[in-house]
Amino acid sequence: MADLELLVAELSKLTVLEAADLVKKLEEKWGVSAAAPVAVAASGPAAAAAAEPVEEKTEFDVVLKDAGAKKIETIKVIRQLTNLGLVEAKTMAETAGAKVLTAVSKQVCCRC
């Protein structure tokens, strides 16, 4: 095993450019990246904006992802929520990503 203190002493003698070149060579040889995730500290106006509390969303769009296995029940619910006719509700149930309701309050949407 190499003497780590001696290795640290030798590496400390490198210039910044030599150290950067060493890092590139080690990355290539070992197939890794020495780049670490960096947390950037915000300053100035950006920091003030980031410190403001985020307003909780109160209105939601109800989007149909998939009618599921019980398509008839889905059509019935769409008709109850939207007052659409049978044909329009069926078309909506068959359309992935269809927006069923817009700007629905949290109480109505979640029924909590």
Give a concise summary.
This protein has 112 residues and is α+β, with helices and mostly antiparallel strands.
What descriptors fit this protein?
112 residues; alpha+beta; 6 helices; 2 strands
Assign the structural class, choosing from mainly alpha, mainly beta, alpha/beta, alpha+beta, or little secondary structure.
Answer: alpha+beta
Low-confidence stretches: none
Strand tally: 2
Cα end-to-end separation: 64 Å
Descriptive notes:
The chain is an alpha+beta fold. It is built from six helices and two strands, in the order H-H-H-E-H-H-E-H. It has helices at 4-12, 16-30, 45-51, 71-82, 86-93, 106-110, and strands at residues 59-64, 98-105. Strands 1-2 form a two-stranded antiparallel sheet. Helix 4 crosses helix 5. The longest helix has 15 residues, at 16-30. The model has no long low-confidence stretch (mean pLDDT 76).
Present the secondary structure layout.
Layout: H1 4-12, H2 16-30, H3 45-51, E1 59-64, H4 71-82, H5 86-93, E2 98-105, H6 106-110
Antiparallel strand pairs: 1-2
Helix pairs in contact: 4-5
